[in-house]
């Protein structure tokens, strides 16, 4: 039901006090403290840690990365900072090993995953029944400082791919690191080239907002200075009678906060002094909102049904439950069918194996019978040979017996003749 709401303007008879609401908000926010999370993406040794130390004028933990990391990792460190009466929980996340692998195809992935994980954690907290967003440590990345190497003619493909993949997830501010290593005219050319490459590849970088009149002028002017060419240093150098942050060279010094030397002051102004709240807001209202919408749609939640009628949470739940049950039944049926097929297949395989075994058995049996037959044959032949041999043996013995008898007969005849002769004499 739409109600034509007509609101009447009324004058108050006197001061009632709700004009203090903005002050109440401020004091509540100050008491609560703020979270700000910076992601530094850039090659190993490009000056990320030095830049963070220079920006916050302090010394954060600084561990040098090696150039031999197998893949890109992210190293988050959280610090409690205090300026005047404002507490800031600052998380600095730095890439480790970015740009060091031979195959850089998936270098953007760990960064993307890290950003999504922080969104996911926030969404989980939001969807809890007992949620405590009031004191939740929000780790969503508010700004990605993308460090571009100064010594090139343009962006590297790794830079373009990474920024393109990240631009719908996070506010990106590109900066040319170590800009003291390039001369002014080369730097101007590089800036123009980088911006034209970003535009022609459709990479959306963070634009300082110009809606608020108070900052419209400075922000629109700063938008034309992107990418900022910065120099970082934690060394205090005496210039005149002042100590300033600078980098010393044999031919002179590069002062970090001197606007004719580099854009460091512009970066600090834009990031910390003018647009910090806008960065936090954009993260929540644009990037997180997009993540949340995609995630909830993926989970089956919709604001409207097919007939464009608004969809209640209950209806979404019921619809999702039904969908889930149908899917479950389908999966069960599929598994049952798969099981039956598997059993049939195994049965057929077993039958085949049985047949093979049977054939093998028959073959062996045949071979065995054949061998038995051969052996029988050989035995018979041997027996015949033995019989023949025995017969020959008997015949030979008989012959020998007869021969022996003949001899002894002759000998007795001779001895008789010999006896007769002796008698005659
Ligand atoms: P990893 O964390 O190891 O990847 O390195 P990083 O990106 O944090 O670089 P880091 O700040 O440790 O600086 C590496 C080297 O570059 C140091 O020797 C710094 O002094 C030097 N350096 C940092 N910023 C600048 C700069 O603006 N100009 C020049 N010329 N050198 C710089
Ligand atoms: Mg570092």
Automatic annotation (TrEMBL):
Residues 32-298 form the Septin-type G domain. Residues 314-399 form a coiled coil. GO terms for molecular function: GTP binding. Residues 404-425 are annotated as: Disordered. Keywords: Coiled coil, GTP-binding, Nucleotide-binding. Residues 410-425 have a biased composition (Basic residues). PANTHER family: SEPTIN. Belongs to the TRAFAC class TrmE-Era-EngA-EngB-Septin-like GTPase superfamily. Septin GTPase family. This is Septin. It comes from Gouania willdenowi. The gene is LOC114471307.
């Amino acid at each position: 039901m739409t109600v034509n709401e007509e609101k009447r303007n009324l004058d108050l008879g006197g001061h009632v006090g709700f004009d203090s609401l903005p002050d109440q908000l401020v004091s509540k926010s100050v008491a609560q403290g703020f979270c700000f999370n910076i992601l530094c993406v850039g090659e190993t040794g490009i000056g990320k840690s030095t830049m963070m130390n220079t920006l916050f004028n302090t010394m954060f933990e600084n561990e040098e990365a090696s150039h031999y990391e197998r893949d890109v990792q992210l190293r988050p460190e959280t610090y409690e900072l205090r300026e005047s009466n404002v507490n800031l929980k600052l998380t600095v996340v730095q890439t480790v090993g970015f740009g060091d692998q031979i195959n850089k195809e998936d270098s953007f992935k760990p960064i993307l995953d890290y950003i999504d994980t922080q969104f996911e954690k926030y969404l989980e907290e939001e969807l809890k029944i007992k949620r405590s967003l009031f004191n939740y440590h929000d780790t969503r990345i508010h700004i990605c400082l993308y460090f571009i190497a100064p010594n090139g003619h343009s962006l590297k493909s790794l830079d373009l791919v990474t920024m393109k993949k990240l631009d719908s997830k996070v506010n990106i501010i590109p900066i040319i690191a170590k800009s003291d290593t390039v001369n002014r005219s080369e730097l101007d050319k590089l800036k123009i080239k980088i911006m034209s490459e970003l535009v022609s590849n459709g990479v959306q970088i963070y634009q300082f907002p110009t809606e608020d009149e108070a900052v419209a002028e400075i922000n629109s002017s700063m938008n034309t200075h992107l990418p900022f060419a910065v120099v970082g240093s934690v060394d205090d150098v005496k210039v005149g009678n002042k100590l300033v942050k600078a980098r010393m060279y044999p031919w002179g010094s590069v002062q970090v906060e001197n606007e004719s030397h580099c854009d460091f002051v512009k970066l600090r102004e834009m990031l910390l002094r003018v647009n910090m709240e806008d960065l936090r807001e954009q993260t929540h209202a644009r990037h997180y909102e997009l993540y949340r919408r995609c995630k909830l749609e993926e989970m089956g939640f919709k604001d409207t049904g097919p007939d464009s009628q608004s969809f209640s949470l209950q209806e979404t739940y019921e619809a999702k439950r039904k969908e889930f049950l149908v899917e479950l039944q389908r999966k069960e049926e599929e598994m049952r069918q798969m099981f039956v097929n598997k059993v049939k297949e195994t049965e057929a395989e077993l039958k085949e194996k049985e047949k093979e075994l049977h054939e093998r058995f028959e073959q062996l049996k045949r071979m065995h019978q054949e061998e038995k037959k051969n052996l029988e044959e050989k035995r018979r032949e041997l027996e015949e040979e033995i019989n023949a041999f025995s017969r020959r043996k008997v015949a030979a013995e008989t012959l020998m017996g007869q021969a022996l008898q003949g001899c002894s007969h002759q000998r007795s005849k001779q001895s008789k003749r010999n006896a007769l002769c002796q008698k005659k004499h």
